[in-house]
């Protein structure tokens, strides 16, 4: 007999239309030239604001088309609408969706709702509670959606009649696996969870709740075939990466058309999102690239481990004090912790302490000490220390300028997988600094930097390729 993760078998049950979840979850339909195509579910998370799975929107786009009108701006060749079940399931209202914002980080899209009647204007808006914090294996979850929706059109009379049939379902289960970065590089290439729960494939975009009722994810996909009657494989995406999605949802007190990340709605209290303060969004200057991460830092535990001499905890805690993430910013305390880790032989501690001495952060600037600690970390094969040390040689910062030494250090770091080192080698070959000028080799290293995710590599590679033509 197969054991059941979490202890209880999953359930998949019909949900009564009078359930409150039916008024917050919205079945979606796209329309164009008399063709109606129902697919997916959205969930209202704030006033005029909802979210669904991005692949639901992408499916509509594939069927009906879209035109790019500017950077991250599109005109979709279809009308998108949502149905809202009201009055304890005895009636329904239609909403127009007049704006769509698709995340570049995960399988989530945000929607702006536009009412079509007076009753919709009077809808009693409440902020659904989101929980951005990562889940754990064994956590119980409850998912909801409208699987296998159907639309029938009768145009035999003077007025065409559209019948939209939906079948609300609730699925319970538990988290069985966690993919903090991605499950694969094709289908689920974003932070997500595997669950022992039955998600019908057509439930996409439906809300997933924690046992305490907080929205913690959206349905991505499920498989029709169970491993056995009690073991299912389904997936849902984490919410926190979607906080980096750029939107222009107008807010009181801000100019119209202003673009900003969804995270700002949480900061302003316009959506209720527990854990928003630990979402870190990094924008790479001069590019459209953004990175988002959830800083799941337990400061008391790190303090305890640091006091016990755990160098990894000392470095992590120091980084928190240096950035002010998860705790009060304290550069002096950060340097003190980096020093302890470095004295114990920790390469990360040596590297970070070297950077602090170089930049004068939390301690008086001292380029000679910076070089000392960066060299020590480099001898321990710390790639980023080699990159930083190479930059100091390249610029003549605290040491005599030496392009060849910089080039050599970057070669070593690139062999260890550093994207920055690969980019710098490409720049060296392009300029003939520290090596003979060679645009072919420059392109080679810039391609490697691009593969490793360097934010500027694509632009420089394009420039090099134009020179080669």
Detail the topology: elements first, then pairings:
Elements: E1 11-14, H1 21-24, E2 25-32, E3 35-46, E4 49-52, H2 54-64, E5 66-70, E6 73-76, E7 79-86, E8 91-102, E9 109-115, H3 118-121, E10 129-131, E11 140-145, E12 150-154, E13 161-165, E14 169-179, E15 192-196, E16 207-210, E17 215-222, E18 234-238, E19 246-247, E20 260-261, H4 263-267, E21 272-274, E22 279-283, E23 290-294, H5 299-307, H6 311-323, H7 331-343, H8 347-359, H9 367-379, H10 383-395, H11 403-415, H12 419-431, H13 439-451, H14 457-468
Helix pairs in contact: 5-6, 6-7, 7-8, 8-9, 9-10, 10-11, 11-12, 12-13, 13-14
Short structural summary:
With 469 residues, the protein is α+β, with helices and mostly antiparallel strands. Helix content is 32%, strand content 28%.
How is this structure best described in words?
With 469 residues, the chain is an alpha+beta fold. Helix content is 32%, strand content 28%. The chain contains 14 helices and 23 strands. Helix 8 runs antiparallel to helix 9. It starts with 10 loop residues before the first strand and ends with a helix.
Q: Nearest-angstrom radius of gyration?
A: 27 Å
CATH class of the largest domain: Mainly Beta
Query: Helix- and strand-based class?
Result: alpha+beta
Number of E-state strands: 23
The biggest beta sheet, please?
A: 6 strands, antiparallel, barrel
What is the subunit arrangement here?
Answer: single chain
Q: Which spans of ≥5 residues are poorly predicted at pLDDT below 50?
A: 1-6
Averaged pLDDT:
88
The percent of residues in helical segments reads: 25-40%
* CATH architect. name of the largest domain: Beta Barrel
Q: How many individual domains?
A: 3
- The 3D shape can be described as elongated
């Amino acid at each position: 007999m197969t054991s059941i993760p979490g202890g209880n078998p999953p359930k998949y049950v019909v949900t009564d239309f009078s359930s409150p979840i039916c008024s917050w979850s919205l079945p979606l339909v796209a329309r164009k030239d008399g063709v109606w195509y129902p697919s997916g579910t959205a969930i209202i998370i704030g006033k005029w604001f909802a979210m669904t799975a991005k692949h639901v929107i992408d499916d509509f786009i594939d069927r009906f088309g879209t035109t790019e009108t500017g950077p991250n701006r599109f005109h979709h060749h279809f009308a998108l609408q949502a149905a809202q079940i009201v009055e304890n399931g005895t009636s329904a209202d239609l909403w127009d969706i007049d704006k769509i914002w698709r995340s570049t980080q995960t399988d989530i899209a945000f929607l702006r709702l536009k009412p079509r009647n007076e009753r919709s204007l009077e809808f009693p808006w409440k902020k659904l509670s989101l929980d951005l914090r990562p889940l754990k294996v064994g956590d119980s979850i409850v998912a909801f959606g409208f699987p296998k929706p159907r639309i029938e059109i009768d145009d035999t009379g003077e007025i065409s009649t559209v019948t939209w049939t939906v079948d609300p379902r609730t699925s319970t289960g538990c988290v069985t696996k966690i993919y903090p970065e991605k499950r694969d590089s094709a289908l689920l290439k974003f932070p997500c969870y595997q669950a022992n729960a039955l998600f019908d494939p057509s439930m996409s975009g439906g809300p997933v709740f924690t046992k305490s009722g907080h929205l913690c994810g959206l349905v991505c996909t499920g498989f029709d075939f169970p491993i056995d009657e009690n073991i299912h494989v389904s997936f849902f995406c984490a919410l926190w990466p979607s906080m980096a999605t750029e939107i222009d949802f107008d807010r009181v007190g801000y100019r119209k058309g202003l673009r900003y990340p969804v995270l700002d709605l949480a900061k302003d209290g316009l959506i209720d999102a527990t854990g928003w303060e630990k979402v870190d969004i990094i924008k790479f200057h001069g590019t459209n690239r953004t990175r988002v991460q959830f800083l799941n830092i337990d400061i008391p535990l790190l303090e305890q481990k640091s006091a016990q001499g755990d160098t990894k905890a000392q470095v992590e805690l120091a980084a928190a004090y240096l950035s002010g993430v998860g705790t009060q910013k304290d550069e002096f305390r950060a340097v003190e912790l980096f020093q302890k880790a470095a004295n114990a032989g920790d390469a990360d501690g040596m590297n970070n302490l070297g950077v602090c001495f170089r930049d004068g952060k939390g301690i008086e600037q001292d380029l000679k000490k910076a070089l000392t600690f960066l060299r020590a970390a480099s001898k321990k094969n710390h790639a980023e220390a080699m990159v930083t040390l190479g930059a100091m040689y390249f610029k003549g910062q605290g040491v005599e300028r030496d392009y060849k030494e910089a080039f050599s250090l970057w070669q070593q770091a690139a062999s260890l997988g550093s994207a920055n080192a690969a980019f710098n080698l490409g720049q060296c070959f392009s300029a003939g600094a520290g090596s003979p000028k060679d645009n072919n080799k420059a392109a080679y290293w810039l391609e490697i930097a691009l593969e490793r995710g360097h934010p500027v590599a694509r632009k420089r590679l394009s420039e090099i390729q134009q020179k080669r033509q």
